[in-house]
Specification:
TIM Barrel, single chain, alpha/beta
């Protein structure tokens, strides 16, 4: 048998082995890719996934950007939704820089200020923009159309910047889930707005405690953030640390049962209290509730 004949006999075996090896490697790579992109159920409640909200003008210590970033990082939090007042405008850029320095995501920005547009472009950040809207006059259909029209400039601005626009519940007609969803749907159907969603705050949703499951089912396809709060009947008091109210455990259970996997926030919103202490109280109250509702893995991150 010649060398060429011998080589030809073994070539199929060689290529078969190579294909098997490559197939195995492809399977391993696919498995690795799947594990990297698949999040554990309930991981949106992990400590480092939580969004800190209402920690700027409500902070009794009146921290500046550097102190605030150090405080947030020291608590093991990695995301901040930035609320502000006029006195904070000169430090908008420093806030961005300090968050980057401490590995904190600039997750959201309250309402709008024109000075943010160049900063968003310069620093390549993509915060959600959280904004309320009013109640126009007219029939329900007219109200929805008018509310959508009032939001169009921000819909277009956020779209041009690659940002999400979050409609923020703050009571009244515009804070009712059905109306918020109707406005989102109108913007999508009539203006092709794919970047609009809803930010729902429990501390503005006390009236929804009795039918929270139905309200969340309605909201869920549109939710881009869900902010938690300790919850008592009739908002007495309105702001409570998580774990000290009567209803938040049952509400968080519903959130888990409906498999909401989007961002979750915790709030300060008590101007008489150090924001660090307020956030610590929420962080202390969450693990026990998470265990009770069947999410021990997230509880272990606290």
């Amino acid at each position: 048998m010649s060398l060429s004949q011998s080589s030809c006999r073994f070539l199929p075996v060689f290529f078969l082995g190579t294909l098997v090896l490559l197939g195995g490697l492809a399977s391993v790579c696919a498995a690795d890719e799947g594990s990297a992109t698949t999040q554990r159920a309930g991981s949106n409640f992990d400590r480092d996934q939580l969004v800190a909200w209402c920690i700027v003008p409500f902070d009794a210590k009146n921290r500046g950007p550097a102190e605030r970033a150090e405080m947030v990082a020291g608590l093991g939090l990695k995301r901040v939704a930035y609320d502000w007042r006029d006195q904070h405008i000169p430090t908008f850029e420093e806030e961005i820089l300090q968050y980057k320095k401490h590995g904190i995501e600039y997750f959201a920005f309250w309402s709008w200020h024109d000075s943010m547009e160049p900063l968003i472009r310069k620093h390549n950040i993509h915060p959600q923009i959280w904004m309320m809207f009013g109640e126009p006059a007219g029939t329900q259909e007219e109200k929805v159309a008018a509310a959508a029209a009032s939001l169009l400039p921000m819909v277009e601005k956020t779209k041009s910047l690659g940002l999400k626009l979050g409609l923020y519940n703050h009571g009244g007609w515009s804070g009712e889930p059905a109306n918020m969803v109707a406005v989102c749907q109108y913007l999508k159907d009539h203006h092709g707005a794919e970047n609009v969603g809803i930010v729902y705050n429990l501390h503005h949703g006390h009236d929804h405690i009795p039918d929270f499951r139905q309200q969340l089912e309605l909201l869920k396809p549109w939710l881009i953030c869900l902010n938690l709060n300790g919850m008592n009947d009739r908002a007495e008091p309105k702001i409570l640390p998580i774990g000290s109210g009567k209803h938040e455990q049952s509400l968080i259970r519903i959130i888990h049962e409906l498999n909401y996997t989007g961002p979750v926030g915790i709030i300060d919103h008590r101007e008489e209290l150090d924001a660090e202490e307020s956030l610590r109280q929420n962080l202390s109250g969450l693990p026990g509730i998470l265990k009770e509702v069947g999410n021990p893995k997230s509880a272990e991150t606290y």
